[in-house]
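Q: Please design a sequence for this.
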């Protein structure tokens, strides 16, 4: 959030249904895709600017599903994508094969839900442009490594924003 806001982008950070004070109940990813679509609609109505989507963990897994096919979204960031999710959850990433917009994937090299080999396999199946950044000694929540996470996003965004003419 802070990395993208540092470029002057308006940033919307929200809770999915059933989280915090939000209404509704958790819908195992299906309804949450609609939450992301509603957020993208709101951003478009309020600001009429190109959108860069960024999601963390579950938010990345479901948010990328909404963001990739949406023409208003010019680039996408998945942080801590759960390629090996917690027990009882399952996320597929085959849909990314059709996502031709610039993509950044950032994960900790000690992420318990994103083991390097599986993460590299998922990213390898995704079309260019794409970039995978592994943050040394970072776990799933980037504890003690948020500065490195922010820097990775800022470096990538400078290149992508210049290329895409944001």
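A: Design:
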């Amino acid at each position: 959030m802070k990395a993208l806001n540092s470029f002057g982008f308006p940033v919307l950070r929200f809770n999915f249904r059933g989280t915090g004070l939000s209404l509704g109940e958790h819908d195992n990813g299906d309804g949450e895709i609609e939450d992301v679509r509603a957020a993208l609609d709101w951003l478009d109505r309020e600001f009429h600017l190109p959108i860069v989507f960024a999601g963390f963990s579950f938010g990345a897994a479901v948010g990328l599903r909404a963001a990739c096919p949406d023409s208003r979204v010019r680039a996408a960031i998945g942080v801590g994508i759960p390629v090996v999710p917690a027990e009882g959850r399952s996320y597929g990433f085959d849909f990314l094969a059709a996502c031709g917009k610039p993509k950044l994937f950032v994960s900790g090299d000690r992420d318990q839900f994103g083991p390097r080999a599986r993460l590299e396999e998922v990213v390898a199946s995704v079309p260019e442009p794409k970039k995978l950044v592994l943050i040394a000694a970072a776990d799933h929540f980037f504890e003690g490594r948020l500065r490195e996470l922010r820097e990775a996003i800022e470096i990538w965004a400078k290149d992508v924003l210049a290329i895409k003419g944001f």
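Q: Thanks. Anything notable?
A: The chain has one domain: 2-164. The longest strand covers residues 73-79.
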